Amino acid sequence: xxxxxxxxxxxxxxxxxxxxxxxxxxxxxxxxxxxxxxxxxxxxxxxxxxxxxxxxxxxxxxxxxxxxxxxxxxxxxxxxxxxxxxxxxxxxxxxxxxxxxxxxxxxxxxxxxxxxxxxxxxxxxxxxxxxxxxxxxxxxxxxxxxxxxxxxxxxxxxxxxxxxxxxxxxxxxxxxxxxxxxxxxxxxxxxxxxxxxxxxxxxxxxxxxxxxxxxxxxxxxxxxxxxxxxxxxxxxxxxxxxxxxxxxxxxxxxxxxxxxxxxxxxxxxxxxxxxxxxxxxxxxxxxxxxxxxxxxxxxxxxxxxxxxxxxxxxxxxxxxxxxxxxxxxx
Length: 330
Prior knowledge:
By secondary structure, the protein is α/β, with parallel strands linked by helices. It folds into 2 domains: about 1-140 and about 310-325, Rossmann fold, CATH 3.40.50.2000; about 145-310, Rossmann fold (3-Layer(aba) Sandwich). It is built from 12 helices and 12 strands. A 6-stranded parallel β-sheet has the order 2-1-3-4-5-6, sandwiched between helices. A 6-stranded parallel β-sheet has the order 9-8-7-10-11-12, with helices on both faces. Strand 1, helix 1 (about 15-30) and strand 2 form a beta-alpha-beta unit. Helix 7 (about 175-185) runs parallel beside helix 8. The radius of gyration is 21 Å and the shape is globular. The protein starts with a strand and ends in a 5-residue tail after the last helix.
């Protein structure tokens, strides 16, 4: 069995949690003894059995076409809208009869197996994309194993910054770090931000930077290597974790904070109402006032979301292996 992975977009232009998840999955599936590699667009080697797409949209419809013509099995891991607001539902029905939606449904129908992150996403795939349940597997995001272990490094001592709320991820409007920072300034709480500026978000990042320059209770580290001792230690040294993001599917950073047994704050959105975040503190609005009101509840929270055994790499690797084995390839 030979498998090729295809990313959603070139990693030089955008690289986030979904891309990290693809690479982590590739590693943990390899650990199961599977021959899985990255598809080389420059290579003419056609000797593989399964094409695994990470994300599906118009830009890779031609890849699906060629894979079907070449008799390849196709697996797709997809992130879908939750359609949890009136506006999102209205937008869906507005485009229901459009040629683009019909095209989406057609290419989704050509895919042999789908992987989604949770039960809600599975139902959306069935209801909005007409995919039968027997083509869908639910496999959560991976949390790297070192997040489940107490680190030897003391982040607070090394960086001389302690008693902080942590927020990790690319700096962007969607992640809403500016309002979190403003809420922490008003509440007189330390905040540690770890993340690069997402391309196209430079103006937003500069606005955040100007706020940080005026307030010594915020530390911004532009990047730490994924799974590094410093990054893991930042989670364990924090008093809580916050991600007031406007839109997510299954935030890995919240899972990592859960592995470190930290209380988490997020928004009262569909993505936050899955089993892994059962005890999350939820702000009702994305504005800094609403976030600030919930910060006291966050740091005093005793409920920890700790049941994420499914997210161990060996469990995720086994789940993906079962998907590949379902094709009965010798």
